[in-house]
Structures are given as structure tokens and as C-alpha cells.
Write a structure and sequence with these properties.
Helices cover about 15% and strands about 30% of the residues. The N and C termini lie far apart (about 25 Å). It has one helix spanning about 35-40; strands at about 1-5, 10-15, 20-25. Strands 1-2-3 form a three-stranded antiparallel sheet, with no helix packed on it. By secondary structure, the protein is of the alpha+beta class.
Length: about 45
Amino acid sequence: MKIKYLAHSCFLITSNSGVRIVTDPSLPGAPPASVMRKWGNPPILLR
């Protein structure tokens, strides 16, 4: 597992099998714009 700091409270977690999860607990309902520009819209958005 790899954890990469992206910005403020946003992290990219990558599992050993390649599954990627972007987290940002400070933004309810949407990833930060900077993450969306770099990684695209997430396939799943958990609220």
C-alpha cells in the first residue's frame, strides 16, 4: 500500500493491486479541483 499526500487534507491511497482511493475529509461531496484536474473525476464518491 502507498499513501501519497496531495494537498491540505487530501491523500491518494494506492493498494498493492492498483486500486486508487482519493480522500479529502474537509470537502463534503466533492474532491478538490486540483485533484480532479490531475486525476479526473473519481468513479465512486463516498459521502
